[in-house]
Amino acid sequence: MDTLKAMRTFVTIAEHGSLTAAARLLDSSLPAVVRTLAALEAHLGVRLMNRTTRRLALTDEGRSYLESCRGVLSAVQDAEEALKEGAAEPSGPITLTAPVQFGQMHVAPAVTRFALRYPKVKLRVLLHDRVVNLLEEGVDVGVRIGALDDSGLIAQPLGHIRRVVVASPALLAARGEPAHPDALRGAPCVRFTGAASLSWSFQVNGRALQVPVGGNLEFNHIAPAVDACAAGAGFGLFLCYQVRPHLASGALRVVLRDFEPPPRPVSLIYPHARLLPGRTRLLVEWLKHEIVEGGTAFAPDPD
User: Fold this and answer.
1) Which of 38, 187, 202, 247 is the most exposed place for a label (fewest CB within 10 A)?
2) Which domain holds residue 55?
3) Higher-scoring residue by pLDDT: 128, 55
4) Could you tell me how far CA 63 lies from the centroid of its own chain?
5) Alpha-carbon dihedral 167, 171, 176, 182, rounded to 10 degrees
6) pLDDT at residue 277 is higher than 90
């Protein structure tokens, strides 16, 4: 039995929770993956996974062996890459995902500079305003804004971004500046499609307050929603980077500063660090430096 191959197969199955997904990622057949797992369990004399028609679950022995396999495979990978370093520059594919506007403003410029510096790395950048499942969708690195709930992923915090309510000077002149979140009940609001379009979160005396909001404009993209607010169509709740240019120009103003909800964390996420290819580790470190230290993503907000 090829022990290293069997270990790679087991780790891939465990991290993706699917024999079919493992077969696809390993460029193998489902029967071959099943045979490899069965042979590994027979070789070890223990059951590594409990299998039903609907799910796979690691046994206690399987969880322990998974960590051991990761260590062994990482050591092999590090040894191979140590020999290759200096003989060849980083190369190979990397798939990266980020939210659309944050990606356009802060990730794409950093990735472009990376591509110019390392021309043999083939970068594929996917910008989505949805939660991308890295393991299921074959993505190597993600930029995530908000709470993290992905099991089996490593997260490196980059910073925090405020959530702010904004309005145009014209709207504030017509309606007055709200003194409390409850003033938004019945006020025109420009909403963004999703659960948060029905009510907005605030902090009042250290406690969360949900305020139902209405209005006759709802968008599934941020940019036109911001433009509608700047045109005076209503109040809007946005992440601060989404409205920073409009705040700087005076087209929008921040209101209800004393009631802002907690800022949202921004993180880099990727699969288990021990199994990252060298090129992916390089990109992670590059993005950390470029976004946090070399960019404006977390610069003071002009409000």
Assistant:
1) 38
2) 3-84
3) 128
4) 26
5) -50
6) no
DSSP secondary structure string for all residues of 71-84: HHHHHHHHHHHHHH
Assess whether 270 and 151 both reside in one domain.
Answer: yes
Count structural domains, the chain: 3
- Contact present, 121 and 249 (Cβ < 8 Å): no
Residues 27 and 44 occupy one common structural domain: yes
Rounded-to-integer distance, Cα 203 and Cα 215, Å: 22
Phi, psi of 88 (to 5 degrees): -150, 145
Domain final residue pick, 53, 84, 115 = 84
Residue 5 corresponds to which amino acid? K
Amino acid at 213: V
Q: Are 11 and 70 in contact (CB under 8 A)?
A: yes
**Beta strand pairing call for 49-51 and 56-58:** antiparallel
Q: Tell me the pTM.
A: 0.66
- The 10s digit of each residue's pLDDT in 218-271 is 998 889 999 999 999 999 999 998 999 999 999 999 999 999 988 899 999 998
